Structure formats: structure tokens, C-alpha cells
Amino acid sequence: MALNGFEKAAIFLSAVGEETAAQILKSLDPQDIGKITSVMARERRSDRNKVESVFKETMEKVISGDIMKGGGEDYVKKILTKGLGNENAEKILEMVSKESPLDSLKWVNPKTLSSFLVVEHPQTIALILCLLEPEQAAAVIESLPDNVRADVSMRVATTERIPDRALEEIEEVLKISLDMGKSSHGKTFQGTKVLAEILNHCERSTEQKILEKIDGHNTAMADSIRELMLVFDDLEKVDDRGIQLILKEISTEDLTLALKTVSDTLKQKIFKNMSQRAVQILKEEMESRGPVKVSDVEKAQQNIVKIARKLDEEGKIAIAGRGKEEFV
After folding, report:
1. What are the structural domain ranges in the chain?
2. How far apart are CA 56 and CA 81, in angstroms?
3. What's the pLDDT tens digit per position in 241-264?
4. Strand 187-188 vs strand 161-162: parallel, antiparallel, or unpaired?
5. What number of other Cβ atoms are within 10 A of residue 102's Cβ?
């Protein structure tokens, strides 16, 4: 089961010791501190594999340039040693140094990727997007020109396998553009699913434009992608227990904004899974806000959808009709 950000932070802070943890917590938002310490209080012991995974991810982000505070790589090496001991710290550093260029892609800043991908052939862009995490791929695809997006998206949706030779060519592009090394592995994909996951992380306007373009070329493909996607209105298909689990994970701020434009049916479904007092407070908050930006509403809905997707992937909730699955 994948760890969320607060769980990773809790594991990291538990491992580095009280003094370092206290210094880090001082710079965080009070709401984030509450969530992190809540996780820390629940977990009496951290699994060694999870600790190593969290420290490895931290180290990789430092090497990629995503984290620059505290003295960079040397600082994180000290933290690794303090949290795991010298031997385990060295092991993680070795694992990071041996990581293949394709695996390292996920740690590259989307803006850095976009700056060189925009001049590459659409097929090269599509294959690289297939290798990224959906959220990162979404950030890249949103920065591409409109006329390139649709072409690239069609190619992603039709991707089933990336041959070794194509991977070698991609690595050559990466080596020149990002100064990376070399490795090769054949990879298989369900292109429509990859694109659906990418679009789930894109802005609504980007998502709609891409699907309209694909619809114009291949209606069946566009329909398949839509069936694999999760949008806010799909929460109507979640059972009451699932709605309750989602409500536990989301903020009142996001819920207040998200419900501004939804159907009465979905509102009632959410209201009936809250206490009367909570519903009253929520309605008062919605009324007191007055008009809000559509972009703010869409962002709040997207935040909730991300949580629903996470719970869906973890098997904690089920969304009827997704991926043509049947429920009995």
C-alpha cells in the first residue's frame, strides 16, 4: 500500500531523532503539523523497509535538485546516517547512485522536462510520458502547445509496449538533454489507462480539449478513456461507507468549494453521510462565501478526486462502473 505524504513525513521525522524533528516541525504549517503528529502517535514502530524507502526518496529528490535546503546532498547524508546508521545510509546512497535513468525520470522537475520535450517528436514525448508518474506527466502535458497535446495524447492512448530499441533512443535523448546515464528494459502499457491517469491530474479545461480532439479522431478510444477516468461526479457511484472514508481525508475548505457546482443528488449523498451539526456548519460556510472562482472550485474538486483515487487504488473504496467492472 502506497504511503501518503503525511505518512512519509511521520516516518522521516520519527527516524531522525527528537532534536532534528523539532527543528523541522517548527517551520511547518500548524494544520500539517497536526496531521503528521497524528500519524506519528498512531505508529509505535516504523517498518525498516518503509524507513529506507522514505530516506531513499528524500535522497533522490536532493540529487535531482527538488530539495535544496540544509546543505543539499551532504546534509541528507548526515540525516540518513543519524536515522539509519552509517551502514544502512551507505546502502541507500549506493541504491540511488545505481538507479537507472528511466527510473530517475520521476524525480526530474516537470518544467525541466517540458523545456526540452517541446522540441522532440510527438512519439518521443508520448513514450516518455508513459514512463512518468501520472501527476508529473500531467504537469508536462499541460505545458505543451494545444496542437501538440492532442497528437501526443493519441499516441499515449495507443501505446501498448515500448521496445528496447525505442527505450535506448529515449535514453539517448535524456543523456543529451539531462546528462543521464544508460539502461534498457522492455516495458508494456495499456495506453488508454495511462492517458486516463494523466488526464485525472490535468486541469479540467486541458482534459476537455484533449478528449474532444481524440473524440474527433476515434470516438471509441475517447469513450474508453472516459470510462477509465475518475471525475468528481463519479462520487455519486461510491457507497455510503466509501463517502465516509473520503470525508475523513478531505478538508472542510475543499468540500465547501467543491460542492458549489455539483448536482443536488450528489450534495444529498454527501450530506447524509455527515452529522446534522456538520451539515449545518457546511451549509452556513457555503452561503457565507458568496461567489467563488470556477478555477477554485475545480481545484478543490480535483483535490478530493485525488484522495478518492488513492482510496480506490488501495482497495478501501469501490466506484461502481469504473473500468467496466461489475458490482454485485
Report:
1. 5-99, 105-228, 232-324
2. 12
3. 999 999 999 998 999 999 988 888
4. antiparallel
5. 22
Structure confidence by residue, pLDDT tens digits, 146-192 = 888 889 999 999 888 888 888 777 777 666 655 543 444 455 667 88
Report, at the CATH architecture level, how domain 232-324 is classified.
Orthogonal Bundle (1.10)
Domain pair 105-228 / 232-324, same fold: yes
State the Cα–Cα distance between residues 157 and 228, nearest whole angstrom: 12
**What DSSP string describes 66-102?**
S--GGGHHHHHHHHHHHHH-HHHHHHHHHHHHH--HH
Separation of alpha carbons 136 and 110, rounded Å = 6
CATH of segment(s) 105-228:
1.10.220.30
Sequence-ordered list of residues with C-beta below 8 angstroms from that of 143, at least 6 positions apart, any chain: 110, 111, 114, 118
Least confident of 25-29, 154-158, 167-171, 279-283: 25-29
